[in-house]
Amino acid sequence: MRYVSLSLLVLLPTLGAAQSLEQRWLALQNTSASYEPPPEYAGWWQAVVAECDCIPAVELPTIAWQRVDATTFECVVGLRCRGYYIPSLAQAFVVSADTLRESTVKHEMRHAILGGDPEHQHPSWRLDVALMRVAARPR
Q1: Sequence-separated (6 or more) residues with CB below 8 Å from residue 43
Q2: Which residues span the domain enclosing 60?
Q3: Are 79 and 8 in contact (CB under 8 A)?
Q4: Got the DSSP string for 29-92?
Q5: Residue 36 lies in a domain
Q6: Which pLDDT does position 129 carry in this prediction?
Q7: Do the domain assignments include residue 4?
Q8: pLDDT for 106-126, tens place per residue?
Q9: Could you read off the pLDDT of 1-37 as tens digits, one per residue?
Q10: Number of domains the chain is built from
């Protein structure tokens, strides 16, 4: 099974579903640890800002980075992810093995720079998807 880094924020139609999203966020909080972004992140951030050709919705130092001790985690009902960005909290969750994986981290950065964009509508996602396909190929 192949997993990709997706950061999805789903508009949930019922209160029960919203509570489920809150419960998943709390579970992530309880199974993750904060970490300082390594020096590579500054260069990756600048590259994504240039690709997006926009003013970032947030700045890199304001993002709270969380390392999730798992290979994947449930970010949305039925969907396993390696990374997840919550715009309202400026909080990025990344699985431990991917904290230095450029494709995963840049994907979450792109969400931060674009202020979320959960449906990947901005034109710069085309480049991100192409990079993700290359990164997901077996080696």
Answers
A1: none
A2: 15-136
A3: yes
A4: HHTEEE-PPPTHHHHHHHHHHHHHTS--SS-GGG-EEEEESSS-EEEETTEEESEEEEGGGTEE
A5: yes
A6: 61
A7: no
A8: 999 999 999 998 888 888 888
A9: 333 344 433 333 333 444 456 677 777 888 899 999 9
A10: 1
